[in-house]
Amino acid sequence: xxASVEADxxxxxxxxxxxxxxxxxxxxxxxxxxxKNSRVRNDHGPLRxxxxxxxxxxxxxxQREPGFDLLLLDMMLPDGNGHELLAHLQRNQPDLPVxxxxxxxxxxxxxxxxxxxxxxxxxxxxxxxxVDQALSDVLSRxxxxxxxxxxxxxxxxxxxxxxxxxxxxxxxxxxxxxxxxGLPNKRIASILQCQxxxxxxxxKALFNKLEAHxxxxxxxxxxxxxxxxxxxx
Length: 233
Description:
There is one protein chain. By secondary structure, the protein is of the alpha/beta class. It has two domains: 3-139, Rossmann fold (3-Layer(aba) Sandwich); 156-232, Orthogonal Bundle (Arc Repressor Mutant, subunit A). It is built from twelve helices and seven strands. It has helices at 3-8, 22-34, 39-44, 55-64, 82-92, 107-116, 128-139, 156-161, 170-180, 185-192, 196-209, 215-224; strands at residues 13-18, 47-52, 70-73, 76-77, 80-81, 98-102, 120-123. α6 links the parallel β6 (98-102) and β7 (120-123). The relative contact order is 0.11.
């Protein structure tokens, strides 16, 4: 069986795009469908887009159809801020990957969104190839931020979440950065030229210091506390 036939037989990924500007959301869907060598399609399968133009419409749709594979969310909607829906999803559908698509990609907005539970933040001005790669990375359980995102210290909003920044060793910070790239233990060990058991020990220490229960939560805490910048994702 050819690769193209196998790809056609893969399950269709359902994407809900929540945006009150249909030209952008529908245009993005068409562009991804037409894109040659799309990373998200090649890695994860064909996409089916559905649309909602408000928080109310999105909430109703998610309640009727809880099986979406990915949510694309604009932050500024006619009936409120996207953070409201993000908070609701964290309580009720925490496993649904959420990507923020916003015209405003200031570092504070990016940090707040990731800290609140978003799996990715993409600027609406980003090139199509960057958006395509970012969506593929999020579906691979990585946390994605804009290419121009950087931070040197926790923001005021972050410090309100947790003022105590744990003291990590340089090697633990290296491991955290590689973890943010979605790399498995074996690959991290290869990059750091150490044993896989050593990586596991570093991860155990990171989980303990960052009060995290899994890899994704560990990376999210890294963003919250200003321990990760754009070069880490």
